[in-house]
C-alpha cells in the first residue's frame, strides 16, 4: 500500500497520506485498575513553536496487559483559542506519517481560519512513528541499499524475487533486533485505544477527529470500538477496512493508473508535453520509457541509479496531487536529457529521505504496521502471484510501483516475527453520531469506491463526494468541501444529501 506520508519536495507541494485492512473481532477494554495510572496522568505542555505546545503521553504497550510495559506518544497542539469548543485530533495518514509534525508545520495551511479560531488541533506520532516510541530497523546506508540498491537479477523474474525475499529477511531481523517487543504492538487497534486515551487526557467526553488516508482507518476502528464516544469524525480519503491486502493493493495500483491517464490527457492538451498522439499512444510511450530505463544507467548526484521501480515510485508520488503535474512533465523532459534529479526528488520525498539521511522512520513504521494490520501472513498469495495480479490490474504505473511497494511489504510481512493483530470483523459503529466520509472521484491512493463502501458500512456514515483529482480533499482549496467540513465541526451540521462538491 502506499502511504501517506507528508513529504517535502523543492518547488512542489507534495502531500502523501495512505492504508490497510483487517478481520477478527477484538473487545474494547475500558479503563480498569491496571489502566488507571495511564488515564490519571496529567499532560505537561511546553511551548514548541509559535502558537504550538508539545508534550509526551504514556500509554500501555499492550492494551490487553497494561503491566507489560509502556510506550511514549509525542503530542503537539495548537494553543487552545479563547472560548475554545474543544480539541480536534488529527492524523495525516501513512501508516507512518507524523501527526506531531503535521500540526506543528502544516495545520495552519490545511484547516480554515474559523476552525483554528474555535478548536485546538492535536496531532500525535502514533506508536512506532517518529518522536513516539519508534520502530527502528536499518541504518541509512543499509536502507538505501534496500530501497535503491542494484539487484543482480531483473525485476519481475523468479531470481529477483528470491533476492528480494533474502533482503527482506535481513530487514525483518534488523527490525526485531533494534525495536524489540514494541514491534508486535504497532498495530492500528492499539492506536485506536491510544486515541481514546488522548481523548480522555484532553478532557473531552467525545472524540472530534480529522483523519486523512490511513488515518481514516484509525478513525473507523475508533468508531467501531468506541461508538458511544464518537463526537464529530471526518474521514477524508477513506479506505475500505474490510478489503484483504491483495485486493487493497490491486485496487489502489489501478487507481494510480487512472490518475496517470488523467495526467496524460491534460499533458497532451497543454501543448508542452513529453508525450505525443492519443492518451493510448502516450501510455505506450511511457511504458517504453519504464522498460528501457534499467539499461540507461541514469544516476543521482549521490550515485544512486534510476531504475524502473524507482521511476514508477516517483511517478506515483507525483500523482498524489494535481499540482505536481507540471513538475511531472518537467521530470520526463529531464530524463530524456539524461537528468534523474527530479525523479529522485519525488522518490526521496515519499520516503522522507533528505540530504543528510532519512528524516523520519516512515518506511519502517509503514511496513511494521501493515504487517500487523493485514493478512499477509495468512493469505494464500506469494510475491509472484501478487505481482502478477497487480500487473493485470495496473499495467501502466501500478505494476512498476508494486516492485518497491507491494513486493517489499509482501516479502517482509510473510517473515514477520509477530502475528497479525485481532480486529473487528465489521465496521458499522452502531449507535455512533454521524460520521463524514469524504471520497475524491479520481483519488489515486484511496479510490472513491472505498469511501462509498465505508460510508455504507457505517450505520451513521455520510458520504461527501469531491469530483476531482488527487489524494484527499479538505484543505485543498475547494469551497464546497471546506464549508461542509467546517459546518460539521463548528455546529454539527450534517448534509441531508451528498453535496457532490
Verbal overview:
The chain is α/β, with parallel strands linked by helices. The protein has helices spanning 36-39, 99-105, 107-110, 113-116, 140-148, 158-179, 188-201, 214-225, 245-270, 279-293, 308-318, 325-336, 341-351, 362-373, 383-393, 398-404, 406-413, 448-457, 479-491; strands at residues 46-49, 52-60, 70-78, 87-91, 120-124, 207-212, 230-236, 353-354, 357-358, 435-442, 461-469. Strands 1-2-3-5-4-6-7-10-11 form a nine-stranded mixed β-sheet, with helices on both faces. The chain has a two-stranded antiparallel ribbon with strand order 8-9. The two termini are 27 Å apart. The relative contact order is 0.16. Mean pLDDT is 91; it is low at 1-31.
Can you identify the CATH class of one domain?
Alpha Beta
CATH architecture name of one domain: 3-Layer(aba) Sandwich
Number of strands: 11
Distance between the amino and carboxyl termini = 27 Å
**pLDDT < 50 runs, ≥5 residues:** 1-31
Q: Spatial order of the strands in the main sheet? A: 1-2-3-5-4-6-7-10-11
**CATH-defined fold name of one domain:** Rossmann fold
Q: Bin the strand percentage.
A: 5-15%
Order of helices and strands: HEEEEHHHEHHHEHEHHHHHEEHHHHEHEH
Describe the structure concisely for a colleague:
With 501 residues, the chain is an alpha/beta fold. The chain has helices spanning 36-39, 99-105, 107-110, 113-116, 140-148, 158-179, 188-201, 214-225, 245-270, 279-293, 308-318, 325-336, 341-351, 362-373, 383-393, 398-404, 406-413, 448-457, 479-491, and strands at residues 46-49, 52-60, 70-78, 87-91, 120-124, 207-212, 230-236, 353-354, 357-358, 435-442, 461-469.
Amino acid at each position: 500500500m502506499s502511504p501517506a506520508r507528508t513529504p517535502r519536495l523543492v518547488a512542489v507541494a507534495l502531500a502523501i497520506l495512505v492504508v490497510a485492512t483487517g478481520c477478527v473481532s477484538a473487545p474494547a477494554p475500558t479503563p480498569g485498575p491496571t489502566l488507571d495510572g495511564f488515564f490519571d496522568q496529567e499532560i505537561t505542555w511546553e511551548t514548541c513553536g509559535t502558537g504550538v505546545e508539545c508534550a509526551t503521553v504514556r500509554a500501555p504497550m499492550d492494551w490487553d496487559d497494561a503491566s507489560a510495559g509502556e510506550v511514549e506518544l509525542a503530542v503537539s497542539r495548537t494553543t487552545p483559542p479563547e472560548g475554545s469548543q474543544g480539541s480536534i485530533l488529527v492524523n495525516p495518514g501513512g501508516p507512518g506519517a507524523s501527526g506531531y509534525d503535521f500540526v506543528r508545520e502544516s495545520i495552519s495551511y490545511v484547516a480554515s481560519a474559523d476552525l483554528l479560531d474555535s478548536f485546538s488541533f492535536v496531532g500525535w506520532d502514533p506508536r512506532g512513528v517518529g518522536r513516539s516510541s519508534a520502530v527502528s530497523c536499518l541504518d541509512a546506508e543499509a536502507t538505501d541499499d534496500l530501497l535503491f540498491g542494484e539487484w543482480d537479477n531483473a525485476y519481475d523474474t523468479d531470481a529477483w524475487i528470491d533476492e528480494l525475499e533474502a533482503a527482506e529477511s535481513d530487514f525483518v531481523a534488523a527490525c526485531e533486533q533494534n525495536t524489540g517487543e514494541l514491534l508486535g504492538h504497532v498495530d492500528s487497534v492499539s492506536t485506536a485505544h491510544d486515541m481514546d486515551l488522548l481523548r480522555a487526557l484532553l478532557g473531552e467526553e467525545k472524540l472530534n477527529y480529522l483523519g486523512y488516508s490511513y488515518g481514516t482507518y484509525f478513525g473507523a476502528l475508533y468508531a467501531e470500538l468506541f461508538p458511544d464516544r464518537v463526537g464529530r469524525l471526518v474521514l477524508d480519503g477513506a479506505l475500505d477496512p474490510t478489503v484483504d491486502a491483495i485486493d487493497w493493493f490491486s485496487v489502489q495500483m489501478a487507481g494510480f493508473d487512472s490518475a496517470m491517464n488523467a495526467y496524460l490527457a491534460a499533458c497532451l492538451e497543454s501543448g508542452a508535453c513529453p508525450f505525443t498522439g492519443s492518451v493510448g499512444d502516450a501510455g505506450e510511450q511511457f511504458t517504453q520509457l519504464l522498460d528501457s530505463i534499467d539499461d540507461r544507467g541514469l544516476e543521482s548526484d549521490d550515485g544512486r541509479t534510476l531504475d524502473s521501480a524507482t521511476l514508477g515510485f516517483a511517478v506515483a508520488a507525483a500523482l498524489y496531487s494535481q499540482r505536481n503535474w507540471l513538475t511531472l512533465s518537467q521530470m520526463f523532459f529531464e530524463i530524456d536529457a539524461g537528468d534523474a534529479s527530479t525523479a529522485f526528488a519525488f522518490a526521496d520525498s515519499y520516503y522522507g529521505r533528505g540530504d543528510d539521511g532519512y528524516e523520519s522512520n516512515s518506511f519502517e513504521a509503514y511496513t511494521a504496521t501493515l504487517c500487523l494490520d493485514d493478512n499477509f501472513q495468512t493469505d494464500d498469495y506469494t510475491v509472484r502471484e501478487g505481482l502478477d495480479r497487480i500487473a493485470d490490474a495496473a499495467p501502466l504505473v501500478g505494476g512498476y510501483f508494486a516492485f518497491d511497494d507491494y513486493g517489499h511489504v509482501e516479502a517482509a510481512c510473510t517473515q514477520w516475527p509477530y502475528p497479525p493483530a485481532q480486529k473487528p470483523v465489521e465496521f458499522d459503529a452502531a449507535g455512533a453520531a454521524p460520521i463524514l466520509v469524504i471520497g475524491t472521484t479520481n483519488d489515486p491512493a484511496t479510490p472513491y469506491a472505498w469511501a462509498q463502501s465505508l460510508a455504507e458500512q457505517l450505520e451513521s456514515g455520510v458520504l461527501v463526494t469531491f469530483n476531482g483529482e488527487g489524494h484527499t480533499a479538505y484543505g485543498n482549496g475547494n469551497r464546497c468541501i471546506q464549508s461542509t467540513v467546517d459546518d460539521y465541526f463548528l455546529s454539527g451540521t450534517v448534509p441531508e444529501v451528498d453535496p457532490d462538491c
